[in-house]
Amino acid sequence: MLDTTILMTRHNFGFGVTFPFCVGIGLLGMALQWQNLHVWLNQKKHRLQLWQLLWTGTGIWLSTVVAFFYFIQAGHDINIKTIRQPVRTILVLGGGTRDCLPRPTLAERLDLAFEWAQRLPDTKIVVSGGLDPDEQCTEAQVMANYLHQHGLPENRLLQEGKSTNTFENLAFSKQVMSEHGISTDDGLLIVTSDFHSVRSRQIALKAGFNNLASAGAETPLSVRYNSWLREYFSFVRGWIVGDY
What's this model's pTM, rounded to 2 decimal places? Predict the structure, then answer.
């Protein structure tokens, strides 16, 4: 609760923050009523059985979260040398803005994208992200401004400013690239956060991109595990709805 409260004072209300905060509230309330709760549970056998089943299910769920965190931290970047076509495009996925400035997670992505843009001077850089709640600038505008201020010329930057999730990032960016003569068969480097590399790459394959590499920026420690938790649920949701 302390961790998430600090993040919320910084205007971070993502699911990876609000969910553990609500869990903390629930556990605190349970602790305060612990004796009364167990008196109530012991009045009926089926209540106690349901209680035990609840904790068993919680333990199983937590084990899947731990396994997912282990999977994420192992790193899953795909080297550009392994794809069949030269990289023509660097696609940077949005990661949150505030006051028309990138949040720390997005800034890490942009810094990594800038490094790759310098290594691959003949590429176009597509920045993808729509309008965050209560913001005046799209993520794409913020990202393009950031990269331009760091030295990238405007003629290398393409903006996709309508998307609201990863699937739309890839689908809408595909349209922007097509308008500039870039094919899904051309080499594409996706730049995102370390925890997001696997899911974004799978969605890109579903969207029709054929020659993919990926580079994951390190997630700032202050939001790392909150971001990983949010990605856990996003990963499960994407599998359920068929994003990949």
Answer: 0.89
